[in-house]
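Continuing from the previous page of notes. For each protein in this section, the sequence appears first, followed by its structure tokens. Read the first protein now.
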Amino acid sequence: MRMLLLLLVVPLAACAKHTTSVVEGQTPVRETDAAIRRGLAWLAAHHDVGRGRFDAKGFMKHDRETDRCDGAGNPLYDVGVTGLATLAFLAAGHTDRGTAEENPHAKSVRQALRFLIEVQDPEGCFGHRRTVAFMYNHAIATLAMCEAYGRTRNPRYLKPAQDGIAFILAAQNPGAGWRYEPRGRESDTSVTAWCVSALDAARRSGLAVPPQAFADAVAWVDKMTDPNSGRVGYNYPGGSSARYEAVHVRFPAERTDAMTAAGMWIRFLADAGEGDAIAKGTKLCLKNPPAWGEGTTDVYYWYFGTLAFSRIGGEACRAWNAKLLEAVGPKQLTGGARAGSWDPIDPWGLHEGGRIYMTAMLTLCLEEAGR
């Protein structure tokens, strides 16, 4: 039954090329599998299991005083990074069930989901609304709750998932997508991608989602797509990704095709994954593949790119995944408190999500590329 549920709720991506490493006295293991295990182990070791949250700013309190991680994030995004870490565990097959021997991360998953349920308000919104970008927190938490319900059928997660989806549906701008305020008359491709991901997880888990919600999201992406280049804009056609002013110089928005990748993913989830827009988007992203370096590291882009290429498949998917593994693998840290994590040196990890965000997102990338 567990494998059946996994097949029902996880989009397959069988295009990745894997490398192996041989440890003396052991059988060969895939490098991606080992990196995923290390990433999950680091997340588990820095989880506030008692409270259930992943503490974006203070996670290093779990380290020894003589060996503490850096990379604090913004505590306003604890709900979002808790959702991302939960998704990373779920994607590796770790639910809230099983003994410690069978599932060493069951307690982390169970407590993280409990935290998300506790911070859901009567309107169905996960987390507070004190940050302008609270819809990110909500959409990611809803995605995690829907995935948890789909994988376990645990009734404890059904109502929180349904209520979270209801909030997303009520927040959508008619004929378009989502942004920072529910029905605020403005949309952007980034928030829309997370909301559509949550709706897709709900639909795959058996929850009712009106088809019009997907159709309206595609209408927004169509509006944001430059017909000549295929580039998808953040909030105007063919435009660049968003950046905080503090990081724009270090991480130029024109060096990423994150919104194009997110736009393709939205199209695939809405069963609109064919045609000229996908062909042009594929070409753009392959010209700008994952590459770790100053100004080029962008795990948000890599996450949606890896998801999109999992649907594109074939040689294009293999080429993208090869570049992803080449960029990510050598940068996973070894030794000390940071072992298994990645340094938060991208536009959203640097000041917002921190090391929790960076490690959860890259673990998710490897999990998708490694299917």
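Done with the first. The second protein uses the same format. Note its length before scrolling.
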Amino acid sequence: MKTSILNIIGSTAVIVLLLTPCTMSQTAGQSPVEKPRVWVLMEEKAMGVFGTTDFVNPGQAEITLMEEFKRMGYKVVDSATVRRNIDQAKGLRALEGDDASAAAIGLQYGAEFAIVGTSHSKPAGGKIFETQMQTLHATVSARIIRNSDARVVAVGSASAAQAHLDEVRGGALAIEKAAKELAENLDRRLTIDSSEEKEAGREMVINLSGLKSYRHLDFVITRLETRIEGVESVKLQDFTSGTAGLLLRYSGDLKTLAGQLTREKFVGFRLEPTHVTSNRIDIKVVIQTSKGDTE
């Protein structure tokens, strides 16, 4: 009996020794995929409140999608901050299908993709077995917008049901279930599209502030077009009161670009990056005098 046990232990040890190097080499050879930054905007309605045609907005879909994307390793822009700072009309246009507005908001906060959509829940029939319990049915739909070109790269939807005494709470739970399923579906599409975009080179944003004249802006644009490797094109989005927005098609890493711009020598001013994300650089133009820098 002892011999047979030892034989089994020995065989198991051999199997472990044979499998472990292979498993370790596969793990070592895998490089973690960097997830893009996203922002989420959802319009939500829980209908049939207290047996009427009224509805409330629990905000469950937006919260759940943000939590799920964070769990999957995405960098997620705080939607509450965005809502506080964007123009209400622009937010409504984004929800109503204006992809350019959604993309512009996303770029403003350094997001590479916007996830915009709707969710709703409603009672799906009468009471269950003569009790106060009822079934709530929810559907969550969203589209993924690539912010660099305001293009819709994927759409998706998911549905779920939940039994509950309370219409609002039951509806929120049903929406939560559907939103989790939708997040998994959108994750696959986001992974594919962000990988393709990185291979092809993507559009990024440079926000400049502190410009004293258009001449300074022209110097920066010319330097980007002629001296920075990897820059394919530079487009001026706007120039107002010393601030400017540039749309840059660039195949490199923005952190590297920020360092290069810091080291570039301009006549009468220098560039000081103040905020860098995976697709946006905020830069302050610092005017230089013979006595030193002035803000």
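What the second structure shows: Confidence is low (pLDDT under 50) at residues 1-31. The radius of gyration is 26 Å. We return to this in next week's lecture.
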